[in-house]
Backbone:
């Protein structure tokens, strides 16, 4: 489908929100499903909104063929204005109005995968945020909530399963080999939660009885060959249901809860009421095809979509600027769910560290670039571009801060009040904040609610500057906290944020010192939460017998950069050795390594060694510490990567960073050689595969050790370790170990890497999700010989590569441009030429996927020459395309501003 040469898309502003002029109460949809021409009959009842001045009815529609419009059963005059259907002469006073609209659309040509589309012989829908308008004319906005009745008709043999939201009322056969199903969803919902599926699927089913004695049917629908990969998804769903009841008192409100997996999907999954539609990546798993990370991803996404049933569906968003109301809250809930499942304090910390790493890699980076926006954005051109790490992950940190400020019980009270007030409504982030504050009137949150709410309105990552001074005579320690926040697009100056700082003080012997704020009379605590709500504040602790080492921002209690002024390496080493907070212990190692990596990048000459001896000794001590878990050790020894190092620099030379990162990896491999050997031997065998944290940690550590042993072999010419890695690759009983061994061969630049890749392809050529891994591995491999771009180009021609499949595009093209900086940023500009070619090619197929790829250039202005000029040229070439999608146009024009 071709777009008109563009008039630039209008900007939508949050402050322009107006309630709709009409409400839609009921929708009765009938679909005659046909891939090339699907007929949609839409019968609605409407009424005027008495609170809004009288005006014509303007319905949204895109890519529709309009055949008929009837008002109260009669023909009527109408206009088509741009994408809107305008009805000016609706009868006055006689509510409700019966409106009937008949349209057709072409699902088989819908490569954008928004609205109704076909995939692998089935029909699927995706309506968030604005896909429903590609199905029928509608008030396609989240504050218009209706009840839906849906009749589906389709050929029975080709589409044996017919699903929509809610409860099945009726099904049966029709003439000519067709059949039908009628569904009714008793809950009022916005159009973005509508869904239908018609496809040749089979289901894993389970019946449960909830605490209240109600029966529910749970179903996971997949293609027939995939049924053996649905057990984990069903388990995760059962755990989600139990967790939401136990932790938040929120029960399943539907007789039937369905999950459907599809291989063609723009995002991870979608929380349509009672009919969640998932990317296969977040449903299908068995030990031979899925890694530990895949299993964890499934648990958290199944949880996420299920939790949306309350936070998103029962209470939804008034408008799309409030997206974080449902997304930030639901990400927080899925993170808590995963932590609660992980169990032990150490496994919880491993979860938290993983989430913080993700946040810093993606959201902090977003916040320092041209797409920086507040958690509640003020404007957008294309809402699809605002399903971001800021709205999701930073939004989740904001919700976490409520919990930190009011405590777990206070947070539960706030949630209870939120549902008491707003169940069934479409509301705003302010409504959530108010419920939290009102439920906790004596909290720091309630006292400073307006300051706290700046987290929603101000973009940018605040910097928390901390400095401490010890007064030996007075036996006091004074901690001074000061904050600043860099300018972001459209927001040159910021007001102070409310920053909860969870902290402790560590004595010389490594023990926690009791904390008594001067003038405070309560029992001293070993840990407390300080609240900074001004630009600067000082906190003095009494009865401190010796100069302590502060441990600040424990558990990463706020999404800020922490700068510890005047702190020496000894303090970092002390925290790494003794901090009772596992997060800060890990953080100490990261800071030590990062500081030395950054100075190696900035040094006029590349130093012989990146890390000093004391850091290496400390890392070795972590590896040898019997009290620490394998998973934690693996995280500590995961070195800062090229993207993380780049984030610390004002001027980025990607090739220089690549050299330093490579030197860092080689140094750690060699310096800890003995340990890698003994760790590998101690952890290589984890027994029968079970996806749970303890054995997963052992697998992760064994794989890291093997990678280091193969790196050592690369320098010494040893063939034993690559041989062992190849053997392990061949014999692996699970995908985690198989991928680990394959990665070790690639990192070790072994001659066995290529045969292993070929064997991997041959083994898994019928497993789409495994082929995605195969493409991704090759796109992200360490580019020591400068050949990766050529190989990626060649892979575009591979018979298994399809530009129309988002998972494949993300695995090859997006992974290369976003996650392999050393291969992408080439002095000859070939990476940028490739990027521009691919963005332009994808833009004609799927604008959302193209826009995501386009963001690989977000930070081009920080590149050193010659990269910067070449990158600018490539971006301008994309921007010059006249019929560019609104999605990509918004991204590239912001980048060029
Ligand atoms: N609400 C979903 C995310 C989602 C957003 C847009 C989509 O369309 C392309 C699909 C899914 C979630 O948070 O899981
Ligand atoms: Zn979500």
Residues:
């Amino acid at each position: 489908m071709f777009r008109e040469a563009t008039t630039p898309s209008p900007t939508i502003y949050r402050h322009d929100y107006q309630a709709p002029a009409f409400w839609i109460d009921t929708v009765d949809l009938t679909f005659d499903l046909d891939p090339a021409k699907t007929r949609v009959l839409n019968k609605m009842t409407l009424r005027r909104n008495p609170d809004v001045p009288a005006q014509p009815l303007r319905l949204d529609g895109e890519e529709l063929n309009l055949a008929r419009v009837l008002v109260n059963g009669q023909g009527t005059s109408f206009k088509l204005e741009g994408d809107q259907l305008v009805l000016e002469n609706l009868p006055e006073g006689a509510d409700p109005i019966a409106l009937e609209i008949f349209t057709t659309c072409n699902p088989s040509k819908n490569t954008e995968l928004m609205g109704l589309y076909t995939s692998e012989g089935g029909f699927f829908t995706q309506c968030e945020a604005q896909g429903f308008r590609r199905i029928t004319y509608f008030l396609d906005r989240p504050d218009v909530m209706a009840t839906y009745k849906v009749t589906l008709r389709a050929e029975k043999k080709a589409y044996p399963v017919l699903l929509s939201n809610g409860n099945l009322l009726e099904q049966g056969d029709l003439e000519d080999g067709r059949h039908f199903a009628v569904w009714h969803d008793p809950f009022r919902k916005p159009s973005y939660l509508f869904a239908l599926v018609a496809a040749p699927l089979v289901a894993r089913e389970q019946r449960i009885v909830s605490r209240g004695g109600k029966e529910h049917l749970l179903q996971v629908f997949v293609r027939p060959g995939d049924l053996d990969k649905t057990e984990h998804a069903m388990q995760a769903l059962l755990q989600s249901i139990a967790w939401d009841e136990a932790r938040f008192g929120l029960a399943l409100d539907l007789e039937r809860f369905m999950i459907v997996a599809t291989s063609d999907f723009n995002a991870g999954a979608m929380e349509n009421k009672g009919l969640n539609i998932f990317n296969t990546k977040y449903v299908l798993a068995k030990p031979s095809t899925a890694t530990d990370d895949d299993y964890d991803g499934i648990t958290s996404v199944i949880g996420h979509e299920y939790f949306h049933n309350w936070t998103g569906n029962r209470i939804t968003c008034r408008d799309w600027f409030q997206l974080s109301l449902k997304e930030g809250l639901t990400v927080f809930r899925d993170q808590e769910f995963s932590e609660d499942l992980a169990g032990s304090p150490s496994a919880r910390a491993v979860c938290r560290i993983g989430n913080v790493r993700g946040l810093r890699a993606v959201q902090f980076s977003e916040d320092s670039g041209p797409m920086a926006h507040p958690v509640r954005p003020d404007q957008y051109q294309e809402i699809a571009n605002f399903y971001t790490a800021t709205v999701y992950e930073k939004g989740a940190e904001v919700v976490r801060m409520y919990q930190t400020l009011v405590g777990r019980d206070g947070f539960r009270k706030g949630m209870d009040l939120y549902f008491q007030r707003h169940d069934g409504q479409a509301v705003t982030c302010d409504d959530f904040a108010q419920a939290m504050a009102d439920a906790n009137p004596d909290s720091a949150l309630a006292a400073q609610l307006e300051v706290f709410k700046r987290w929603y309105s101000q973009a940018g990552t605040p910097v928390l500057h901390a400095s401490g001074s010890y007064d030996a005579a007075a036996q006091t320690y004074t901690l001074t906290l000061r904050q600043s926040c860099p300018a972001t697009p459209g927001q040159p100056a910021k007001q102070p944020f409310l920053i909860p700082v969870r902290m402790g003080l560590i004595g010389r012997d490594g023990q926690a010192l009791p904390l008594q704020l001067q003038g405070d009379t309560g029992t001293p605590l070993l840990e407390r939460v300080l609240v900074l709500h001004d630009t600067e504040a000082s906190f003095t602790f009494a009865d401190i017998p010796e100069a302590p080492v502060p441990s600040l921002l424990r558990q990463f209690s706020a999404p800020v950069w922490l700068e510890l002024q005047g702190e020496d390496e000894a303090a970092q080493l002390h925290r790494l050795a003794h901090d009772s907070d596992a997060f800060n212990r890990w953080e100490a190692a990261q800071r030590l390594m990062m500081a030395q990596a950054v100075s190696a990048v900035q040094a006029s000459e590349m130093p012989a060694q990146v890390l000093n001896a004391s850091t290496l000794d400390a890392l070795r001590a972590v590896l040898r510490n019997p009290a620490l878990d394998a998973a934690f050790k693996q995280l500590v020894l995961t070195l800062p990567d090229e993207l993380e190092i780049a984030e610390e620099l004002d001027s980025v030379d990607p090739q220089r960073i690549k050299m330093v990162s490579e030197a860092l990896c080689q140094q750690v491999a060699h310096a800890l050689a003995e340990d890698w050997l003994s760790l590998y031997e101690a952890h290589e065998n984890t027994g029968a595969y079970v996806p749970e944290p303890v054995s997963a940690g052992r697998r992760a550590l064994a794989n890291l050790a093997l990678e280091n042993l193969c790196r050592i072999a690369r320098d010494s010419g040893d063939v034993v370790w690559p041989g062992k890695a190849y053997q392990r690759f061949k014999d692996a009983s699970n995908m985690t170990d198989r991928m680990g061994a394959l990665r070790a061969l690639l990192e070790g630049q072994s001659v066995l890497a290529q045969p292993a890749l070929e064997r991997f392809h041959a083994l898994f050529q019928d497993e789409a999700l495994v082929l995605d891994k195969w493409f991704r591995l090759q796109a992200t491999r360490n580019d020591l010989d400068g050949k990766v771009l050529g190989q990626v180009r060649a892979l575009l021609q591979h018979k298994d590569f399809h530009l129309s499949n988002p998972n494949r595009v993300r695995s090859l093209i997006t992974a290369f441009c976003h996650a392999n900086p050393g291969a992408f940023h080439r002095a000859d500009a070939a990476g940028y030429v490739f990027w521009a070619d691919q963005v332009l090619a994808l833009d004609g197929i799927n604008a959302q996927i193209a826009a995501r790829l386009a963001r690989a250039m977000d930070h081009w202005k920080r590149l050193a020459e010659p990269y910067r000029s070449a990158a600018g040229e490539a971006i301008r070439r994309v921007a010059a395309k006249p019929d560019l999608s609104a999605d990509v146009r918004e991204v590239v024009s912001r980048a060029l501003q």
